[in-house]
Design goal:
By secondary structure, the protein is of the alpha+beta class. The protein is 38% helix and 11% strand. The strands form two sheets. A four-stranded antiparallel beta sheet has the order 3-4-6-5. A two-stranded antiparallel ribbon has the order 1-2. The protein is globular. It starts with a helix and ends in a 6-residue tail after the last helix. Bound molecules: zinc ion.
Length: 229
Protein backbone atom coordinates (compact mmCIF):
# COMPACT_ATOMS: atom_id res chain seq x y z
CA UNK A 1 0.00 0.00 0.00
CA UNK A 2 2.74 2.45 0.97
CA UNK A 3 4.71 1.30 -2.06
CA UNK A 4 1.71 1.92 -4.34
CA UNK A 5 1.18 5.42 -2.92
CA UNK A 6 4.87 6.29 -3.35
CA UNK A 7 4.68 5.27 -7.01
CA UNK A 8 1.53 7.37 -7.46
CA UNK A 9 3.22 10.44 -5.93
CA UNK A 10 6.10 10.06 -8.40
CA UNK A 11 3.89 9.69 -11.48
CA UNK A 12 4.70 5.99 -11.80
CA UNK A 13 1.31 4.45 -11.03
CA UNK A 14 -1.71 5.03 -13.26
CA UNK A 15 -4.13 2.52 -11.71
CA UNK A 16 -6.17 5.21 -9.86
CA UNK A 17 -6.68 7.40 -12.93
CA UNK A 18 -9.95 7.96 -14.72
CA UNK A 19 -10.61 9.59 -18.06
CA UNK A 20 -13.03 12.53 -18.12
CA UNK A 21 -14.37 12.40 -21.67
CA UNK A 22 -16.25 15.71 -21.50
CA UNK A 23 -13.00 17.54 -20.69
CA UNK A 24 -10.62 15.20 -22.52
CA UNK A 25 -8.37 14.75 -19.53
CA UNK A 26 -7.01 12.11 -17.18
CA UNK A 27 -7.38 12.65 -13.41
CA UNK A 28 -7.48 10.64 -10.19
CA UNK A 29 -10.89 8.95 -10.05
CA UNK A 30 -11.82 10.78 -6.82
CA UNK A 31 -11.49 14.15 -8.60
CA UNK A 32 -13.98 13.47 -11.43
CA UNK A 33 -17.28 14.57 -9.89
CA UNK A 34 -15.90 17.76 -8.32
CA UNK A 35 -14.21 18.69 -11.58
CA UNK A 36 -17.41 18.20 -13.55
CA UNK A 37 -19.26 20.32 -11.03
CA UNK A 38 -16.71 23.11 -11.36
CA UNK A 39 -17.11 22.90 -15.13
CA UNK A 40 -20.92 23.19 -14.79
CA UNK A 41 -20.56 26.21 -12.53
CA UNK A 42 -18.21 27.83 -15.04
CA UNK A 43 -20.74 27.20 -17.80
CA UNK A 44 -23.52 28.74 -15.69
CA UNK A 45 -21.31 31.81 -15.21
CA UNK A 46 -20.86 32.17 -18.98
CA UNK A 47 -17.45 30.52 -19.41
CA UNK A 48 -16.24 27.37 -21.15
CA UNK A 49 -13.82 25.72 -18.73
CA UNK A 50 -11.27 23.55 -20.55
CA UNK A 51 -8.33 21.56 -19.24
CA UNK A 52 -4.94 22.29 -20.82
CA UNK A 53 -3.03 19.82 -18.68
CA UNK A 54 -4.00 17.23 -16.09
CA UNK A 55 -2.21 14.00 -15.14
CA UNK A 56 1.36 13.85 -16.38
CA UNK A 57 3.59 10.79 -15.88
CA UNK A 58 7.13 10.76 -14.49
CA UNK A 59 8.46 9.91 -17.95
CA UNK A 60 6.54 12.72 -19.64
CA UNK A 61 8.01 15.20 -17.11
CA UNK A 62 11.44 13.63 -17.70
CA UNK A 63 11.12 14.31 -21.42
CA UNK A 64 10.10 17.95 -20.77
CA UNK A 65 13.08 18.33 -18.40
CA UNK A 66 15.57 16.82 -20.83
CA UNK A 67 14.29 18.91 -23.75
CA UNK A 68 14.56 22.12 -21.72
CA UNK A 69 18.07 21.21 -20.52
CA UNK A 70 19.13 20.53 -24.10
CA UNK A 71 17.54 23.77 -25.33
CA UNK A 72 15.04 21.85 -27.50
CA UNK A 73 12.16 23.42 -25.62
CA UNK A 74 12.02 27.08 -24.60
CA UNK A 75 12.81 28.07 -21.02
CA UNK A 76 11.51 31.46 -19.87
CA UNK A 77 13.15 33.96 -17.53
CA UNK A 78 11.45 35.48 -14.47
CA UNK A 79 9.60 37.97 -16.69
CA UNK A 80 8.36 35.26 -19.03
CA UNK A 81 10.82 36.03 -21.84
CA UNK A 82 12.71 33.23 -23.66
CA UNK A 83 16.12 32.45 -22.18
CA UNK A 84 19.34 31.40 -23.98
CA UNK A 85 19.91 28.23 -21.95
CA UNK A 86 23.22 27.22 -23.55
CA UNK A 87 24.88 30.41 -22.17
CA UNK A 88 24.23 29.34 -18.57
CA UNK A 89 26.27 27.21 -16.15
CA UNK A 90 24.77 23.84 -15.20
CA UNK A 91 23.55 25.18 -11.87
CA UNK A 92 22.03 28.25 -13.53
CA UNK A 93 20.31 25.97 -16.06
CA UNK A 94 18.77 23.85 -13.32
CA UNK A 95 17.39 26.86 -11.44
CA UNK A 96 16.15 28.57 -14.61
CA UNK A 97 14.21 25.47 -15.68
CA UNK A 98 12.80 24.97 -12.19
CA UNK A 99 11.13 28.35 -12.13
CA UNK A 100 8.58 27.10 -14.67
CA UNK A 101 8.96 23.32 -14.82
CA UNK A 102 9.03 20.71 -12.10
CA UNK A 103 11.70 18.10 -11.69
CA UNK A 104 10.51 14.69 -12.84
CA UNK A 105 8.99 13.11 -9.73
CA UNK A 106 8.21 16.49 -8.15
CA UNK A 107 5.30 17.68 -10.27
CA UNK A 108 1.88 17.95 -8.69
CA UNK A 109 0.57 16.88 -12.09
CA UNK A 110 1.83 13.37 -11.25
CA UNK A 111 -0.88 12.99 -8.64
CA UNK A 112 -3.96 13.28 -10.87
CA UNK A 113 -5.26 15.95 -8.47
CA UNK A 114 -3.91 18.99 -10.29
CA UNK A 115 -5.06 20.72 -13.48
CA UNK A 116 -4.25 23.71 -15.67
CA UNK A 117 -7.51 25.31 -16.78
CA UNK A 118 -8.55 28.07 -19.17
CA UNK A 119 -11.67 29.57 -20.71
CA UNK A 120 -12.30 28.60 -24.33
CA UNK A 121 -15.20 31.03 -24.68
CA UNK A 122 -12.96 34.11 -25.03
CA UNK A 123 -10.49 32.79 -27.63
CA UNK A 124 -10.70 31.67 -31.23
CA UNK A 125 -10.20 28.01 -32.14
CA UNK A 126 -6.75 28.71 -33.62
CA UNK A 127 -5.53 30.62 -30.53
CA UNK A 128 -2.14 29.38 -29.28
CA UNK A 129 -2.59 28.82 -25.57
CA UNK A 130 0.46 29.98 -23.60
CA UNK A 131 -0.54 29.69 -19.95
CA UNK A 132 1.24 32.89 -19.02
CA UNK A 133 0.35 35.49 -16.39
CA UNK A 134 -0.11 38.03 -19.22
CA UNK A 135 -3.12 36.04 -20.45
CA UNK A 136 -4.78 36.44 -17.05
CA UNK A 137 -4.16 40.17 -16.50
CA UNK A 138 -4.78 43.55 -18.18
CA UNK A 139 -6.37 42.95 -21.58
CA UNK A 140 -5.54 39.21 -21.61
CA UNK A 141 -8.32 36.87 -22.77
CA UNK A 142 -8.75 35.09 -19.43
CA UNK A 143 -9.07 38.05 -17.05
CA UNK A 144 -12.78 37.54 -16.36
CA UNK A 145 -12.45 33.77 -16.05
CA UNK A 146 -9.65 34.04 -13.49
CA UNK A 147 -11.53 36.65 -11.54
CA UNK A 148 -14.47 34.23 -11.37
CA UNK A 149 -12.22 31.22 -10.60
CA UNK A 150 -10.48 33.02 -7.76
CA UNK A 151 -13.80 33.88 -6.14
CA UNK A 152 -15.07 30.34 -6.71
CA UNK A 153 -12.02 28.75 -5.06
CA UNK A 154 -12.26 31.16 -2.13
CA UNK A 155 -15.69 29.75 -1.22
CA UNK A 156 -15.68 27.66 1.94
CA UNK A 157 -17.11 24.56 0.26
CA UNK A 158 -14.76 24.66 -2.74
CA UNK A 159 -13.01 21.34 -3.46
CA UNK A 160 -10.16 23.10 -5.28
CA UNK A 161 -7.45 25.61 -4.36
CA UNK A 162 -4.55 27.47 -5.98
CA UNK A 163 -1.26 25.96 -4.78
CA UNK A 164 0.86 28.45 -6.77
CA UNK A 165 -1.14 31.61 -6.11
CA UNK A 166 1.73 33.77 -4.85
CA UNK A 167 5.35 34.16 -5.88
CA UNK A 168 7.66 33.04 -3.07
CA UNK A 169 10.79 33.33 -5.20
CA UNK A 170 10.53 29.69 -6.22
CA UNK A 171 7.94 28.60 -8.74
CA UNK A 172 6.30 31.45 -10.65
CA UNK A 173 2.65 32.20 -9.78
CA UNK A 174 0.29 30.03 -11.84
CA UNK A 175 -3.32 31.21 -11.51
CA UNK A 176 -4.40 28.57 -14.06
CA UNK A 177 -3.12 25.70 -11.89
CA UNK A 178 -5.77 24.31 -9.55
CA UNK A 179 -5.58 21.42 -7.13
CA UNK A 180 -8.19 19.06 -5.68
CA UNK A 181 -7.84 19.89 -2.00
CA UNK A 182 -8.95 16.71 -0.16
CA UNK A 183 -6.52 14.40 -1.93
CA UNK A 184 -3.70 16.83 -2.79
CA UNK A 185 -3.29 17.91 0.84
CA UNK A 186 -2.96 14.27 1.84
CA UNK A 187 -0.45 13.53 -0.93
CA UNK A 188 1.55 16.65 -0.09
CA UNK A 189 1.87 15.53 3.52
CA UNK A 190 3.33 12.17 2.42
CA UNK A 191 5.70 13.45 -0.29
CA UNK A 192 9.27 13.69 0.98
CA UNK A 193 12.84 14.60 0.11
CA UNK A 194 13.97 10.98 0.50
CA UNK A 195 11.28 9.66 -1.83
CA UNK A 196 12.32 12.11 -4.56
CA UNK A 197 16.05 11.64 -4.00
CA UNK A 198 15.84 7.85 -4.30
CA UNK A 199 13.83 8.02 -7.52
CA UNK A 200 16.13 10.59 -9.15
CA UNK A 201 19.28 8.76 -8.08
CA UNK A 202 17.93 5.66 -9.84
CA UNK A 203 17.07 7.53 -13.07
CA UNK A 204 19.23 8.82 -15.92
CA UNK A 205 18.42 12.42 -16.96
CA UNK A 206 20.05 15.69 -18.10
CA UNK A 207 21.91 17.69 -15.41
CA UNK A 208 21.51 14.77 -12.97
CA UNK A 209 24.73 15.39 -11.02
CA UNK A 210 23.94 19.09 -10.58
CA UNK A 211 20.38 18.30 -9.51
CA UNK A 212 21.42 15.69 -6.94
CA UNK A 213 24.25 17.91 -5.59
CA UNK A 214 21.75 20.75 -5.08
CA UNK A 215 18.64 18.78 -4.22
CA UNK A 216 18.36 20.12 -0.66
CA UNK A 217 18.31 23.73 -1.89
CA UNK A 218 15.98 22.78 -4.75
CA UNK A 219 13.65 21.01 -2.34
CA UNK A 220 13.55 24.00 0.01
CA UNK A 221 12.97 26.59 -2.71
CA UNK A 222 10.82 24.83 -5.26
CA UNK A 223 9.23 21.81 -3.70
CA UNK A 224 8.64 22.21 0.03
CA UNK A 225 6.68 25.44 -0.40
CA UNK A 226 4.64 24.22 -3.36
CA UNK A 227 4.20 20.47 -3.22
CA UNK A 228 3.80 20.75 0.53
CA UNK A 229 1.22 23.52 0.26
ZN1 LIG B 1 0.06 23.08 -13.74
Amino acid sequence: MVHHLNKLLLGLDETSLSEVHQLQCLVHKDVVSSLLQLEREATDAGFALKVASSYRSFYRQLLIWNNKAKGLRTTLDAKGKPLEISALSDKEKVFAILRWSALPGASRHHWGTDLDVYDASRISSDYQLQLTVAETEGDGPFVEFHCWLKAELAKKDSDFYHPYAIDRGGIAPEPWHISYTPLAKKFASIFSFDLLYQQLAATEFELKTTVLDNLEEIYDRFIKGSVNT
